[in-house]
Hints:
This protein has 271 residues and is an alpha/beta fold. The chain has a domain at 3-120 and 194-202 and 255-268. It is 41% helix and 15% strand. The chain has helices spanning 15-20, 50-53, 56-66, 96-100, 129-135, 137-142, 154-162, 166-171, 176-188, 203-224, 232-235, 237-253; strands spanning 3-9, 24-27, 38-39, 74-79, 82-84, 116-119, 122-123, 191-192, 198-200, 256-259, 261-263. It has a seven-stranded mixed β-sheet. The chain has a two-stranded antiparallel sheet with strand order 5-11. The chain is globular.
Amino acid sequence: MKISMYCLSLDPNHLEKIKYLKYIPVGLGDNSFNKNWLNDKHGTNISRKNPFYGEYTFHYWIWKNHLKNLEKGWIGFCQYRKFWTQNEIKKNISSIADLNHSILKEIPESYLKYDSIIGEPFYVNQFRFTKFIKRNLKKMILNPKFFLKKNRTIKFHFDMWHGEGNIDRAISLLDKNDRSDFNEFINSKQYFNPHNMFMCKNKDVLTKYYESVIPWLERCETHFGFNNLKGFGLKRIYGFLAERYLSYWFQKNTNFKTMPIYFKDISNLSL
């Protein structure tokens, strides 16, 4: 089954390479992109917020400007250094042509009965213990339960990397229907589906997701703002919040299946 795959990048030099993959190249952020390339600066947009929102400036753009133009069928999103693949890639990828033969081109038949596809789980309790100690020794000492892997949840991980209590403050701004469920999700799950990558069976599923996540992120701006977000863990807090919410929303609201994500930066691959 054919899929419309949008591949996102901040670098104008990547777009020709993405086009070779027969994906839809998308430019993000402050760089200047040729007017022939799709990017998040046209129409109603929040392109200026890309350092804080990451990929979601493009999702906002689709939501506000492009939903009616989407083709029928599967819609997916990947990035210039993260790609979907159904099978493990063992050979050395040294060119765009190699990559083109290795990444997802169609939805496999075994996936067609699902509403969505999200990345394979990332387990937050698999970090080395010393990494948590270096990150926040005081928290570990004051909360001995976190010495046990079974107690290291999504919330624990978010508090350690993106600010103590920030995800709780964000949850308080959710619609009532999702507030308690998402809170339960982050306090009980030890994994999330990473990288803000997903595929939807149709634009109806995509629209419902946008109508849930984007207004919530806008409400979060009233609390976190932008001026005091320093360092990678805080500066991109809207993208990190969306990443956790994506896992929750698709698991709760769709019949989903996971798929591996392959890491390969196209910057150094020749055409």
